[in-house]
Specification:
The protein has 294 residues and is of the alpha/beta class. It has a domain of 127 residues: Nitrogenase molybdenum iron protein domain (Rossmann fold), CATH 3.40.50. The protein has eleven helices and ten strands. The strands form two sheets. Strands 5, 6, 7, 8, 9 and 10 form a six-stranded mixed sheet that branches. Strands 2-1-3-4 form a four-stranded parallel sheet, with helices on both faces. Strand 5 and strand 6 form a beta hairpin. Helix 5 packs antiparallel against helix 6 and helix 6 runs parallel beside helix 11. The longest helix has 25 residues. The chain is globular and about 70 Å long. It starts with a helix and ends in a 10-residue tail after the last helix.
Length: 294
């Protein structure tokens, strides 16, 4: 009668040792290059493993206390290797390639993720990160919740569009108001506008410099501006000061100029986007604002 409990104890001990061995095989010291990726690592409970992040990794605020490895597209092998990481995670925006090769040759695992603005990329990112962190079930839960939030928003937007036509919108990305680029087709900015129920007036591909006169001629109903140096009212005043022709647009005349956090446009689709999209949709459809709250 004593054998069965003893066997059970032995089995539990083996399982515990196996779990410990599996945990030991997972990378423990992480460096992340890409704001959305760093946010997902934190959301999955892996923030304590991060020993360095790039300059686009601004959320959660606690990440700012970590050593910086610089901008994700202009990494230095020496700075990263000095942090003794087991793994460097980043999107296909990360580089330059010779630096990544140097990091790999030093024995550091380099894991690349898609920066595409599409839900399939979110699923793949969470699945892969879940495996690397040993948090597969949490990753699946986050992926399902993400899709549910966006589906709910689409239903709310469809309802709002019964009383209002989709507004013509432009998304400008600039620095202290100067030389804004317009988000065209195939960009994260375009995905954001469409998901929030806007009609992107820019039909070019990628991000492109435009003259402000050409921008004003498009006469958007709403201008969404994303400034890498300033935020809120400061960013708006800088935009109008540097680009006075913009003031004649319908969006400016009707004061439909909306600030958008630039970190949401970097490194793929991150966990804060659904709530940001709800807020953006509420600005696109003011009559349905109450129903568009998350």
């Amino acid at each position: 009668m004593m054998r069965r409990p003893a066997a059970l104890v032995a089995l539990c001990a083996v399982l515990a040792l196996s779990t410990q061995a599996l945990a030991a095989e997972l990378p423990q010291r992480w460096v992340s290059a890409g704001g959305a990726l760093s946010e997902w690592v934190s959301a999955l409970g892996g923030e304590q493993r991060l020993v360095g992040v790039d300059t686009t990794s601004q959320h959660p605020a606690s990440l700012k206390a970590l050593p910086s490895i610089g901008y994700q597209r202009q990494l230095s092998a020496e700075g990263i290797l000095s942090l003794r990481p087991d793994v460097l995670v980043g999107t296909d925006e990360m580089g330059p390639p010779p630096v990544l090769a140097q990091i790999r040759n030093a024995g550091v695992r380099v894991e690349l993720f898609s920066s595409k603005a599409e839900l399939g990329a979110v699923d793949d990112t969470l699945h892969h990160l879940g495996q690397l962190l040993g948090r597969e079930s949490k990753a699946a839960e986050l992926a399902a919740d993400y899709r549910q939030q966006l589906q709910q928003l689409q239903g709310q937007i469809k309802q709002a569009q019964t009383g209002q036509e989709a507004p013509g919108v432009l998304l400008l990305v600039g620095h202290a108001g100067a030389k804004p680029m317009i988000a065209g087709q195939g960009t994260a900015g375009d995905w954001v506008l469409r998901q929030a129920g806007g009609r992107n007036l820019a039909d070019h591909q990628g991000y492109k410099d435009f003259s402000v006169e050409a921008l004003a001629a498009l006469n958007p109903d709403v201008v969404v501006f994303s400034d890498r140096a300033l935020s809120g009212e400061q960013a708006l005043q800088a935009l109008l000061k540097q680009n006075p022709a913009l003031a004649v647009s319908r969006a400016a005349r009707e004061r439909r100029l909306v600030s958008f956090d630039p970190t949401l446009l970097v490194g793929g689709l991150g966990p804060r986007l659904p709530s940001a999209l709800h807020a953006l949709a509420a600005s696109f459809y003011p009559a349905a604002k109450a129903s568009l709250n998350p």
